[in-house]
Specification:
The protein folds into 2 domains: 158 residues, VC0802-like (2-Layer Sandwich), CATH 3.30.2130; 193 residues, HUPs (Rossmann fold), CATH 3.40.50. It is an alpha/beta fold. The protein starts with a strand and ends in a 5-residue tail after the last helix. The chain has 12 helices and 14 strands. Strands 1, 2, 3, 4, 5, 6, 7, 8 and 9 form a 9-stranded mixed β-sheet that branches. The structure holds adenosine-5'-triphosphate and magnesium ion. The site of adenosine-5'-triphosphate (ATP) has 17 residues, from α5 and β11.
Length: 366
């Protein structure tokens, strides 16, 4: 039996021809990247891709743009009737009580799809005694797709990750700490077609290696969705200088907001160097005391590129649920040091004029 995979990507259909081509090409090259051993064939005009050879469904599940897929068996129309019975053997239809046959057809034939479904259904009933047809909620369903003289049979539709093919929207730099939030934020933008360049700020001596190790482990999981998901580690002395200066001035409560503004500035420089069109962060309104509208306003001032915060309106439990679904949760909750530079009461209602004044006075921005 010849096995192959059918990948469906219907939403791409809705786009104009040039956009659709670009999206299809991106989807195909993303599939090739994770499944280099398989042959990829596009079926023009129908929002389908066929894969032949070694296919790892676990990898296929994580390619953005794939809505669903099915492992199929191929036969010619001439052989369809006898082949359908072999297929039923293979899927152990005798273990079920009820079944249905669904036929879809492209091309001109001397039968309708319903007639073919009824014919195959009769053959199956004849061979497998005790089975019953149930068109509403069958235990087993045999899907038959007829394309002119070619037929494809499958019994399972596996859900893909959906979204838009990775890269079609361009690149974003992610502020990636490896906690629960920032990986989910980066992933949500990946799902909308943005390739991510993640950057991690090494804040030692205010944290130890465990935080970096956690970020690396989480990044490894996101590699399953974007194979080159490699964190860039940024290390500078800003936080040490800022902490010292703010302590002397007796305004340590500004540490986090200044540190975050610095991260935004560095992220912007990197984004411009790498041709990224914006920055994505894991901030969510009201989540930790410092994530307030006032503070976000002050943060936005630090960079001229758009800052995307896909988690802004999410509750923590919702974010955790997505983290579980995409597989990052367990790695994100591994014990890791947190930032020891965080003051007792970080400012929650920062005022831009005041922050600009502090940065100028303490010469924290060059
Ligand atoms: P997370 O759960 O993503 O670790 P958080 O809820 O702990 O974030 P903050 O520490 O205020 O919240 O960070 C807010 C956002 O700032 C993070 O989601 C991330 O995008 C960015 N960020 C924080 N620390 C770092 C870091 N060391 N390197 C890179 N980005 C960071
Ligand atoms: Mg958080």
């Amino acid at each position: 039996m010849t096995k192959m995979y059918l990948v469906r990507y219907s939403k791409i259909f809705l786009k104009s021809e040039p956009v659709r081509r670009r999206w299809e090409n991106a989807l195909i090259s993303n599939i090739r990247e994770v499944l280099p051993e398989c042959r990829v064939r596009r079926e023009r005009g129908r929002g389908r891709i066929w894969l032949e050879g070694a296919v790892d469904p676990e990898k296929l599940k994580r390619v953005f743009g794939g809505v669903s897929f099915s492992e199929c068996e191929y036969c010619t129309l001439e052989n369809l009737n006898s082949f359908s019975l072999d297929f039923c053997d293979e899927i152990e239809i005798d273990k079920a009580r009820t079944f249905a046959v669904r036929v879809k057809r492209v091309g001109s034939h001397d039968f309708t799809s319903q007639q073919k479904a009824a014919e195959l259904g009769d053959l199956i009933l004849n061979k497998f005694k005790g089975l019953e047809v149930d068109l509403e909620s069958s235990e087993k369903t045999i899907f038959v797709e007829i394309r002119n003289e070619d037929c494809y049979l499958f019994d399972e539709v596996i859900k893909g990750v959906g979204g838009i093919p990775l890269g079609v929207e361009g690149k974003l730099v992610a502020l990636f700490s490896g906690g629960i939030d920032s990986p989910v934020a980066a992933w949500l933008m990946m799902k909308r077609g943005c390739k991510i360049n993640p950057i991690y700020f090494d804040i030692s001596p205010f944290s130890d290696k465990s935080m970096l190790n956690r970020a690396k482990r989480v990044a490894n999981i996101l590699k399953e969705y974007q194979p080159d998901f490699e964190i860039k580690v940024v290390k500078d002395t800003f936080l040490e200088r800022a902490k010292e200066a703010l302590k002397s001035a007796g305004i340590e409560n500004y540490t986090c907001i200044l540190c975050k503004r610095h991260m935004y500035r560095v992220a912007e420089c990197i984004a411009k160097e790498e041709g990224a069109k914006g920055i994505v962060t894991g901030e969510s309104l009201g989540q930790v005391a410092s994530q307030t509208l006032d503070n976000l306003l002050v943060l936005d001032d630090a960079c001229s590129l758009p800052v995307y915060r896909p988690l802004i309106g999410f509750d923590k439990v919702e974010i955790e649920r997505i983290a579980q679904e995409i597989g990052t949760f367990d790695a994100s909750i591994l014990p890791a040091s947190s930032c020891s530079a965080v003051p007792k009461k970080p400012v929650t209602k920062a005022k831009l004029e005041k922050v600009l004044e502090i940065e100028k006075e303490l010469i924290l921005v060059l």
